Amino acid sequence: MVSGTDDGCASGRGLLCQCTKGVTRITGWGVQSVLRLGVVAVAGFDTERAKPRPPAKLGAAGRRLWREVVERYELRPDEARILGDACREADIVERLEAELADAPLMVKGSMGQLVASPLVSEVRQHRSVLAALLKSLKLPDAPADAQRKQNLVSEQARAAARARWGNVKGV
Asked: How many CB atoms lie within 10 A of CB 137?
């Protein structure tokens, strides 16, 4: 077993890791550096793909979102945190939509007038937060989507080039 002073962590803080020599704490090192040291398990991560574990108590929508993202992309710890928040927002949106399905869209206001249900506004706001969180992850397009997008951009570029240079003679 490696002691705290041998791994540069005299304070006892850092990642709790199981390496070929036993369990140790490692601080200030990235996951890739840790893997080169023969680490076989890092608390909170699957070291084969450095795949973070989902947050506790996610609902169906949150678990589905988490699974879809971590199966396609490798995430840094900060990205995993943002994804966790997005998963919780997805669960909130799902719960609000379920409540709204059985509730009227219009309710009586304070003066007896018809107004939009507060649930409508809440769903809209939480969808907006979810979209912002997902956007902040800056995930690349899926490979098939990226190829279609590249083909479209290439075709548009060719059309623009033909329009610009097609009238030039002697080229």
From this structure: 15
* Rounded distance between C-alpha atoms, residue 147 and residue 41, angstroms: 36
Q: Note the pLDDT of residue 139.
A: 87
In sequence order, the 6+-apart residues with CB closer than 8 A to the CB of 60 are 91, 94
Tell me the pLDDT tens digit for each residue of 7-55. Answer: 444 444 444 444 444 444 444 444 444 444 444 445 555 445 457 889 9
Residue 2's φ and ψ, nearest 5 degrees, are -95, 130
Please report where in the chains the tokens 């399905």 appear, as a residue: 101
In one letter, which amino acid is 47? T
Greatest C-alpha distance within the chain: 77
1 within 8 A of 23, measured Cβ to Cβ: yes
3-state secondary structure 24-48: EEECCCCHHHHHHCCEEEECCEECC
Q: Is 86 exposed, middle or buried (0-12, 13-18, 19+ CB in 10 A)?
A: buried
Q: Is residue 25 a contact partner of residue 16, using CB atoms and an 8 Å limit?
A: yes
Cα 110 from Cα 26, distance rounded (Å): 59
